[in-house]
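1st attempt posting a full record on here, be nice pls
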Amino acid sequence: MELDGKPKVGMQFDNLESAWKFWKSYGGKMGFGVRKDFSNKSKKDGAITSCRFVCSKEGNSANPLFFHKFQMDSDEQITNIFWADVRMQLDYAYFGDVVSLDTTYCTNNAHRPLALFSGFNHHKGVVIFGAALLYDETTASFKWLFEMFLKVHNQKKPQTIFTDQDRAMAKALQEVLPDTYHGLCTWHLMQNCIKHLGNLMKHGSHFLRDFKACMYEYEEEKEFEEAWSQLLSDYNVHENTWVESVYSLKEKWAACYMKKVFTLGMRSTQLSESLNADVKRCLNPDVDIIQFFKHFERVVEDKRYNEWKCEFEAREKLPRLRCPSSPMLQQLAEVYTPIILDMFQDQFDLFSACCIKQRRQSESLIEYVIDMYKHKGEWEVLFHTQEKSVSCTCRRFETFGILCCHALKVFEANDVKLVPDQYILKRWTKMARTGIIFDVNGNEVEEDPKFGHTLEIRSLCQRFVKLASEVTGKDEVLILRSATEEMIKKVEALRLGKIRGTNESDDPIIPSSNDMSIPTGIKKRVGIKRRSRPKSRVELQLRNRKASRSRSHPTFTHSQSESTDIGASSLVQLENSFSFTRLLMDQSEGSVSLGALEFGGDKL
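the predicted structure (as tokens):
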């Protein structure tokens, strides 16, 4: 092909060297430096199959800490993608003690699962810690997913993680996170119960009610075992394989066994009905990968906007105290967020119904037996008089992080008017987001790296103006002018050096930040659609009620000309300017890029 000095679509070269010479010549004519970005080598013979030449001043990511990784098969097709922006990394650093992993979302007709890591912030709102598009739900895929999750979050492991009842996922968790408590989502357990034992729920049967009671109501293991035995006997399910398998996992879902685990009250991966609705609304079968990420980012931004509103209300509105004269409530009103303060006040109200049934003292330890008016059961509370520490058999503080009414009763009996500092968890306070977070390389993680730079420039401007305003004599003016001109020369020389330093003809080929090889596209999943289970009569009734209520609300439809807004508030943009959608966008028309990846028009 005859070359006229301008790059064109479809140009062909005899070899890599001739292409590089052409690109270098074009850069010289147009006045910009050039460099080699990456190259792909064949896994068979090591020959270079593709590469990219770019301008030496090609911009960096608006936020270089945006994390993304992808996994490829032998044909260099993407199988799994994981990503987490800087805000997700910060959220996990502050609130990553208890994590929910939901993989029940399917993106499109290819039924590719969307894995969503989420949890609770200090306002008990939902925060996202990371997300992934998986090719399948095998142990290998889940193992890779958990490894990437730990990598982006500086190997910080959660105390507790909740998932559905998936064996492949459980196996991967055991390998990657052996020390993390693995809880089962009670919502999925109920759905599986309906699926496997739906025949027992006809004609006014109370099986589902009794099964649910075993999950939530019994605080003591003995009570649970008795109730479970009664359940097996009443409904004759002693030899049912599914019932046996669920019982073998009782430590992962029964309330009496989970008293030993820090859960924040979480029992399900379905943390928020609004989040589920928003995510499902953006998973339209006709949405391609770029539109999907745009919709997904809007969902995440909507949740962050909700937190911003809660932050504003917490700082601007006075808390409502049910007993304004209480020193303890006055103390906690200063530190707790409003919703956590309300939860504490619920326990504060209940302690008036508590009665001290027994009291035994030995040296600095006092043992109490507490019962409650019109409540079944008794609770043992230990109080150490010197440390002012307390522990209750209900273990509310150990599981949720807020003191129980039984402990408050003991505090009241010992004239403890303020909550000791060790019982005020920072994650529930207004200051939960304070503190510096570092990445795996020891660098400070900033949500918007330009923000600190802007503050520095603003501070310099103020100092320069102040200095100029204080100059009085001619000699001082000359000194200031000379120093200013010298600084200008140094800054310009620094800029020029950066440009010249990148305009070298023998630049090495730089590999992609994610992988030494660059994918050719996203692998199409060839599989069988997940079968939907038969719906029970109760579920059908609930679905019909929801449908009738939602008829008056607009439904989500997608078209190329319509806005990508999916109902998220547009009042304020909280996210930094860099996003996974921008990472996918390429300068060339009709193509999509993932880092250095190029592929055109693929759907998930």
